[in-house]
Input
Amino acid sequence: MAGIDLEVAEGEIYGFLGPNGAGKTTTVRMLCTLLRPTGGQATVAGHDVLADSAGVRRAIGVALQEAALDPLMTGRELMRLQATLHGLSKREGRTRAERLLDRVGLVDAADRRVGTYSGGMKRRLDLATALVHEPRVLFLDEPTTGLDPVSRLTIWEEVRKLNDEGTTVFLTTQYLEEADQLADRVGIIDEGSMAAEGTPAALKAEVGSPHLDLALPDGDSSRAGEVLSQFGTVGEGENGFVTVTLRDGAIGVAPVVRALDEAGIAVASLDLVQPSLDDVFVAKTGRRLEGDDAAEPVLAPAA
Output
């Protein structure tokens, strides 16, 4: 790795993006004390990863992409074992295990062997085991890779709840939509170095402004251009569309429609095009993120 410099604030969700081989997993493994750094300095929850690795491990929960779950044990047995490994009393371990199994929706399957669980159930169980000792920081390494849209949405909802309760979340993902939905800030790593960092909104604003694509009747384009110029830069898009960049973003749509109507110009269709994290990723790295193309779209609930 060429070296990265990042800081995650307490109580935030930090999305860590990058193509395969960029250094995401290496970074996470060093922060989780699973891999010894060869240089530099890192602290997690106030503990130095080299000088106080035990302190780091007590403060963090980790759910890696490949869940290390014994397929012959039941979900309840695994939860209680994890509690014991973290030094919890038998009584407290049972209490937390039951509470977390209920939280991730696995009570009905708790006495089934993990080998019979679906991929989504295994991810939820892995998340529950990472929370049994109530960590301050939760590391999630591509937690929804390969899951169906419903399972992905379930994981998203749980991550939001955990963060609302004060847990700091360090999320690595190949799904740009996931980072856009969940992260307070995003860092993009490329070839071992940080290519960009900021809030999703700020990063998207760096690469472009929202614009409208309008389909107009033949012969009205020139007249429409005069009307639209008061709202932003007007241009010609693909397939005969007229485009106008909206200086005020999405709130500028209604005034555009009203102005065209008052000018007697009919609009056959319009489409508001927003910059995306995919646009940011391409602008900062020169290529698209491999995993995002394969992700099925998830319709998140309205805020």
